[in-house]
Amino acid sequence: MTQRPALANVPVVSLDEITKTFPGVKALDQVKLDLYPGQVTALVGENGAGKSTTVKILTGIYQPNGGTIRINGEPVTLNTPDDASAAGITAIHQETVLFDELSVAENIYIGHAPRTRWGLIDRAEMHRAARLLLDEIGAPLSTSAQLRDLGIASKHLVAIARALSVDARVVIMDEPTAALSHKEIEELYELVEKLKSQGKAILFISHKFDEIFRIADRYTVFRDGAFVGDGRIADIDEDGLVKMMVGRSVDHIFPERDPVVGEDVLQVVGYEHPTEFADIGFTLKRGEILGFYGLVGAGRSEFMQSLFGITKPSKGVTKINGKIRIIRSPADAVGNGIVYVPEDRGKQGAVIGLPIFQNITLPSLGRTSRSGFLQLAEEFKLARQYAERLDLRAASLDQDVGNLSGGNQQKVVIAKWLATQPQVIILDEPTKGIDIGSKAAVHEFMVELASQGLSVIMVSSEIPEVIGMSDRVIVMRDGRIAAEVSGDDLTPETLVRHAAGITAAPQPQEA
Amino acid sequence: MPFKLIPMRETILAGAIVVLLALIASRFPGFVAPSNLANVFNDTAPLIILALGQMVVILTRCIDLSVAANLALSGMAVAMLNVAMPGLPIPIIIAIAVMLGAAMGAINGILVWKLSIPPIVVTLGTMTIFRGIIFLISDGKWVNSHEMSAAFTGFSRTEILGLPVLSWIAIATIAVFGVMMSRTPLGRSVFAVGGNPHAAVYTGINVGKTQFLAFVISGALAGLTGYLWVARYAVAYVDIAGGFELEVVAACVIGGISIAGGVGSVGGAVLGAIFLGVVKNALPVVNISPFWQLAISGSAILIAVAFNAKGGGKKGRIILKTAEVSS
């Protein structure tokens, strides 16, 4: 390492016992986080640990329900993003929030452009200042280039320049390397070193352990919205960090089950997509629950959507019951006994505005009609059958599905698919955002489905759920299958290791 | 059967029409005489038919601004056909008008489905093109009543059970649409596509194709109305039904068809059309300038939309605030 300013002991920003609740969920529970000038602090945690919520609180987008934010020891409130940037806190976001139709300089200075004395934007001064900033970070971009014409990496540099255009004391980098190539990542590291040498405090959020150990001076670990520990990177190793991330108490008992696994139902061979995933192949057996674990962005949902016929894979073969089936549309998938319960049920699940029974029969209209006309009595019969099977709580099946709670809406969506009598059901994050009671119901129901001979694919980012429910787990990383884990190897450590791509595993990997 | 035949919004609109009729009747009792009401209904029949087609389009989150131009072109085409071949039976004339209209609707539908051009742009374009084609095929000349055969102009005025055929066609259209929207997979798909296109995709419904079919339906009805219009007024020229597309959209909006798609009913579209029909027919009777008609229609649209926005407030709420929590 090159020369480094003496490590200051006083945090420039500190979060103290910060709590943030959303209806029904505690996103952050009395967390603490200290950022020191001239140091990089890595914020580490699984999906759902509360990292993004923390960023949003630091940048004034969310207001905490409790706790204190201190800047140089003084308590402050950050009510708006403006407050945060006035306090010198600036963020480079996961998805760069920039304007395609504006120039590089305009993007950097939008919202705080230099003005002439008439109050108009001083374009000359703006381009001059933008030039300085871009030179400082070593970005060979024209200030008048249209953002639309730039590549991802260049856009990222613009975002960084934008973050530095306010007099920043604290720079938050939320997964900054996710979209960058190897060379660009190296350049980013240099930039981080430069910012450190200028005495800026950097909050670095990443899932990649190699870069955390490469670049961070300190770490803070969150788990399920709670503070777990912090310290100096020099004092910890990968193992220690993984243990802190996953070592949680079992807060939920998973249903007992005796898997009776039958013959092969679904075989997927060599599925490939130009940008999202490659070389996906596996076999699913009758009555099996197959878990898909991975970090957000590992390509799990993208692959499932392809399997379901929504996006077209560039390559790949699907065999159902040993026969090759071509799936080009969701209708083909449903016709072949594959159904998909998407993650975002608000957007992709229930049709708000239609009554419950019509939501349930929507994919089964062929079965509930006679010579082209829908039979309402049949529809009600079918809907009632599955509503009862799922213990759906609703005043009447004629009620608008929008009036149901999240858990009950989820049941409507599942009922809709069961009514098509599928062989394979894909559940994408089936319990995300629902309360613990509904969660247990969904879990029990999955076991029941499997015991009735249905094959279940469960995409989940919750480690306890993945381990508690799955017979076998496929871990995906960067669009590929990183590992297949089952039996005694099915531990939180193994899953996190494979998902994050830590090669030096202490236990032998499964072939 | 726990199925709401007359939802709340429609009841309120029906009430508004009754109040309106009562107000007019208090000064001009003749207006509410059954024979006059039948005349009003007959006069409103084209609007009702077109509003039903427009309703299907709007339910799928689209809009069809080309209906009036489609009507005029289909009308001109069958009028010229009648002049050229006066012996052609009326059912064949009607079939040709419907097919022409459906073909024009299919053009709209294909552009929306396959090229993903916004419907408002597509139909604004085809609207102008259709009007242009009328000019080209007619040379800008009128087809007048004396050139049309007696059967051509007489058909829609023939009375059956005291009502003209035009009225019966509107009633039949209402009945067909009532069944189609509530009892066929297509009708259900239309609501699903407009209510939640993403969910519809996952359900195996082809969103683009459903929108295409909606345009074909709207076009076919415009074609049908084209013949009826030309026959009723016994004249065809470039500008017939100019601007009528806005009245059709207005009828839908007043009838509670959500412009955002997915919400609406056959009853609503019909009542919306009748409301406009009553206003239009009553104003000359009560001796109010026809310009007021525009102001009244406009106010009715705003009131109806305000009503729907309030009623629909619950619909847009975010059920899953917690989805944001994940990091």
TrEMBL record, chain A:
Example of a GO cellular component annotation carried by this entry: plasma membrane
Main subcellular location of this protein, as a coarse class: membrane
Protein name in UniProt: Ribose import ATP-binding protein RbsA
Domain ABC transporter, first and last residues per copy: 13-249, 260-503
Topology term for the membrane: Peripheral membrane protein
A GO MF label: ATP hydrolysis activity
InterPro entries named in the record: AAA+_ATPase (IPR003593), ABC_carbohydrate_import_ATPase (IPR050107), ABC_transporter-like_ATP-bd (IPR003439), ABC_transporter-like_CS (IPR017871), P-loop_NTPase (IPR027417)
EC class: hydrolase
Subcellular location: Cell membrane
UniProt KW Cytoplasm keyword: no
Pfam families registered for this protein in UniProt: ABC_tran (PF00005)
This protein's encoding gene: rbsA_2
Keywords: ATP-binding, Cell membrane, Hydrolase, Membrane, Nucleotide-binding, Repeat, Sugar transport, Translocase, Transport
TrEMBL record, chain B:
Coiled coil (residue ranges): none
UniProtKB keywords: Cell membrane, Membrane, Transmembrane, Transmembrane helix
GO cellular component, one term: plasma membrane
Primary location class: membrane
GO MF annotation: an example: transmembrane transporter activity
Subcellular location: Cell membrane
Topology relative to the membrane: Multi-pass membrane protein
Protein name: D-allose transport system permease protein AlsC
Species the sequence originates in: Flavimaricola marinus
Name of the coding gene: alsC_1
